[in-house]
Amino acid sequence: MSGKAPKDPRFPDLSYTVLDGARSTRVAGGRTIEELEPEYKIKGRTTFSSLFKYDPFDFWVGPFYVGFWGFISVLGIIFGVYFYVNAVIINGPYSIPQNFFAGRIDPPPASVGLALATPGQPGFAWQMTVLFATTAFVGWMMRQVDISMKLDMGYHVAIAYGVAVSAWITLQILRPIAMGQWHEGFVLGVLPHLDWISNFGYRYKNFFYNPFHAIGITGLFTSTFLLSAHGSIILSAAQYRGADSGDIEDTFFRDVQYYSVGETGIHRLGFIVACGGVLSANMCILLSGWVVQDWVSFWNFWNSLPFWSGV
Amino acid sequence: MATMTPPSGDIKLGPDRNGRIGKPLHLPILENLGFDSQFGPYYLGIWNVAAFFFGIMFTFIWLTVMFSQVGWNPVAFVKYFVVLQIDPPSALYGLSFPPLEEGGWWLMSTFFLTLAILCWFMHIYTRARALGLRPYLAYGFSGAVLLYLVIYIIRPMWMADWSEAPSHGIKALLDWTNNVSIRYGNFYYNPFHMLSIFFLLGSTVLLAMHAGTIWALEKYAAHEEWAEMQAPGTGTERAQLLWRWCIGFNANAYSIHLWAFWFAWLCGVTGAVGIFLSQPTFVANWFQWGIEAGINFPQLPPGP
Lengths: 311, 304
Hints:
Radius of gyration of chain A: 25 Å
Number of domains of chain A: 2
Distance between the termini of chain B: 76 Å
CATH superfamily of the largest domain in chain B: Photosystem II protein D1-like
Distance between the termini of chain A: 58 Å
CATH topology of the largest domain in chain A: Photosynthetic Reaction Center, subunit M, domain 1
CATH topology of the largest domain in chain B: Photosynthetic Reaction Center, subunit M, domain 1
Strand order of the largest sheet of chain A: 1-2
Structural class of chain B: mainly alpha
CATH architecture of the largest domain in chain A: Up-down Bundle
Number of strands of chain B: 4
Largest sheet of chain A: 2 strands, antiparallel
CATH class of the largest domain in chain B: Mainly Alpha
Strand order of the largest sheet of chain B: 1-4
Strand content of chain B: under 5%
CATH superfamily of the largest domain in chain A: Photosystem II protein D1-like
Number of strands of chain A: 2
Shape of chain B: globular
Helix content of chain B: 55-70%
Helix content of chain A: 55-70%
Oligomer: heterodimer
Shape of chain A: globular
């Protein structure tokens, strides 16, 4: 907490303080990776060394940090890529370069329900790829937790990545379970998964009328807008040679649009908008077919609201 | 110990302060959320005023015509708000000016909307110049402006048919987006649409990555990006190492914003190319285009 008294007693200063000396570490022009990296390569401070006092994979390979979760993730990547490449590229129906675009792994047929396919049965390669991809994704997220612990950071990067993984889990695991069959998962393959998305939208009549889809798309567009605005103002400020260097971004946006969200604010807002858009997109998929069959007639409730019946 | 977001105190005005009106307002609770608490003062420039004037003209025509469509019944106006729309002139009129009720209102409102957008572009361009900044915000906005111009002005005029442009209305805009994809053989096979979606989703990923990294390092002052670019400190070093250790390479406090700028800009520009090419003269059917390009195989080949 700040040593100073809050300027307004109704709004106590709850913001935590910049760690002592963080600013004094600044080096004009910066240090090279070779100069700075050894200082940060310390042993321990991972999930496994916190829980069990020992992390068998607490080392780096080239620039990459491994850790226990890196090990899990690499296993998932190797086996997932094996099943995918084997079914889509090598044994696909076309030539190998064409298989890259058009090769596909279909989910199990509806008759399989939520059972597990055995080797050689249709859907086995899909289930294995999904299983190992999910392992790789979750392992990768936990590896980000490990790296964040090591660098004494918050877990925001792992959380944001977890939101992206939640979209995969919603589509391939949660919604198929809610619908009672793995058949509801999406087809793996470059063009085939686009076909699946296109068909999915029209299967529920018109996805443009799905309000969670609308909120999700709004989140993506707003993210792109915020990224453009933030990226461009920092590029501008980097080349700025006038007075008030630290404040020029705020001055500019106050002039342009009355309000500048500030240098902590833009990163918090961006994080919330990007993650929120994806979470809403999860809802729009999960509800389709499970709760709502038809997004066009979904809106019938609007016309039959009691206070404007007869209008 | 320094406070993370020090209260702004007196506003520091940059050069060319003329035109700012009013006093700054403060909403201190925003500081506790990490957002800046200061609103204003208001800058009143000619392009700003012009943009708002034309924007209000567009909104006024749009709302008034839609209001007239429900017989000036306010309850019906609210009930049917999202499905009311102003249609562009039908194809029969070509590029000539039709009666107001048959597309004239659409032409007039679109004219004002376009002026508003172009004036806003001039507003952010001239304001950056006046403050001594290179106008990167205007450069970035140009991607969105190009997409708008292609959809509403350039492509319809090229095809000599205003009815190719979207109607003004909430549902109408969604329907146009849906229908243009179907009419030109499914946009999922349009490679520029693929690129635009790639940059749209990529922008969201980049924003989450960058914003998450900086938010996670606020206690190490990584959010003071101007200072961190001049002299990187431990905050930026940790941010760089996180991505080096995670994905094997990293940007720095300056170059991540280059990535950000180009991803967001290219989203609009590639989308504009994809829309413009979708017309009978160039590509009438993207599904068919995909077959000819060798990426779309509607039928499996016969077995051995």
